[in-house]
Specification:
About 20% of the residues lie in helices and about 40% in strands. By secondary structure, it is an alpha+beta fold. It has one domain: Roll (Thiol Ester Dehydrase, Chain A). The protein has a six-stranded antiparallel sheet with strand order 1-2-4-5-6-3. A hairpin with a 2-residue loop joins strand 4 and strand 5. The longest helix has 18 residues.
Length: about 150
């Protein structure tokens, strides 16, 4: 019997920080051999999805609710500091800053070892499946607040 996990890692939560490991593959790079700039946004998106999953609110479960919902990005600010290259082992570190009403904000950083490669501030909104804004349900808001306080 194998000791390998049956599904990919969703990362780990340490206090009020979620850490998602990301390996850089050839497909992530551009003609220069560096990670294409838009891929950093993909890594951040994966981390946000995995935080929700670890908190008990995966996208499939959110869509299957009696009042289905989803989260959509409203705004992103991103700064790039250093390039990542093929075979690099990175970490996406996510810290929820605040959540209220229909919106939440997350600060995300991408590291290779101690070197910070990129930093993003993401504002997302809770929406119905018709795309209309809606308040974040109390149980999800409570999970965000507990995670933000480092007591998950």
């Amino acid at each position: 019997m194998s000791d390998r996990p049956t599904e990919p890692s969703a990362g780990i939560i340490r206090g009020n920080l979620h850490i998602l490991p990301v390996r850089i593959y050839y497909e992530d790079t551009d003609f220069s051999g560096m990670v294409y700039h838009a891929n950093y946004l993909r890594y951040c998106e994966r981390a946000r999805s995995d935080v929700l999953r670890l908190l008990g609110f995966g996208h499939t479960e959110l869509a299957a609710r009696s009042e289905p919902l989803a989260f959509t990005v409203r705004r992103i600010e991103i700064d790039y500091f250093l390039p990542a290259r093929i075979d690099d082992a990175l970490e996406v570190r996510s810290h929820w800053q605040e959540a209220a009403g229909a919106r939440f904000r997350v600060h995300q950083e991408i590291f290779r070892g101690q070197a910070r490669l990129a930093a993003a501030l993401v504002e997302a909104a809770c929406i119905s499946m018709t795309g209309r804004p809606r308040r974040i349900p109390p149980e999800i808001l409570a999970a965000f607040e507990k995670f933000s306080a480092g007591s998950t």
